[in-house]
Amino acid sequence: MGTGFFFTEKMCVGYHRKPIVREIEIYLPKGKILCLIGPNGSGKSTVLKSIAKQLELVGGAGYLNGKDLTKIKPQELAKQMSIVLTERLRAERMDCQDVVSTGRYPYTGKFGILTKEDREIVRESMELVHVLEIANRDFTKVSDGQKQRVMLARAICQQPDLILLDEPTSYLDIKHKLEFLSVLQELKEKKDLTVILSLHELELAQRVSDQILCLRGGYVEKYGSPKEVFQPGYIRRLFDMTAGSYDENSGSMELSRPSGEAEVFVLAGGGSGREVYHMLQREGKPFATGILFDNDLDYPPAKALSSNLIAAKAFEPIPSGLLAYAKETLSSCQQVICCRESFGSLETANQELYAYARQSGKIIVHTATWQGC
To answer: What CATH number was assigned to the domain covering residues 6-238?
Structure first.
């Protein structure tokens, strides 16, 4: 196992001595981000609370900088670890700056009086997560997203070595999700901060994490780098997905494809077909599409949504037999939608397919004028 900045030895967590997740083995070097993913109820919050010593370990041990967590006194632990969990903070009669200032209490005397240096750290922490402009507003009256950023500022204010976050982006819009995670990455790089967090947004977990811990059925099912975890088909199995799809390579999620034989043939490529694919899916119209190379931007949604995807290997000539099959498929459809204004020099097969559609008398609609089927 080694002696990483944070590591565990067969840690078992749960409530009232009843295990929920068993034999958790983590090795996390300093200055890295670990993300916990898994279905609801898989134990992500329980793991975080146990590391934070809010729950007593059922078995095994956890170590922070080589020291057993159970041996670290609360005052000292507060200087090394900060926590942003899902429980609501009771902050009556406190403005946002007051809330952030509580992050300095591990460093103040018993009277909690802030020094000039403490106040400067508070200001810098609020500025870092873009909440300085609401410093004097009542904490209970700001939005959920603003509350979440204030709590992150509070955690940063502790100047910890390790920060724990439970679903920190749940109440944030896309702008603030990206800002929030960018701040974590910046702190990781500039301050050598170690981060353990749980996320529901898999595409964000894939991008922000150095390591990922997958929880399912009371055990750690997988642990490794994003590349090792996000293998084709794994996320579907981890979450027991019965509808729709998730593409590990692109991080895209799609709803279920329309059932039945293809009624529409879509000529696309280069990302031009995604809007049409989604429109047809919403209308419940099964469609075929091609010829797409397997590295094309349209390939992931086409694979998930089309009833018949005609694809070729990237950087290789399109076989004549595949072109013939594409023509046959097109002939069986009632309509052709063309998403392309022109075809590149390496797309002679699609140019020929388009010409074939015109010659066969199919109804060809270009997306510039198409308003749905």
So the answer is: 3.40.50.300
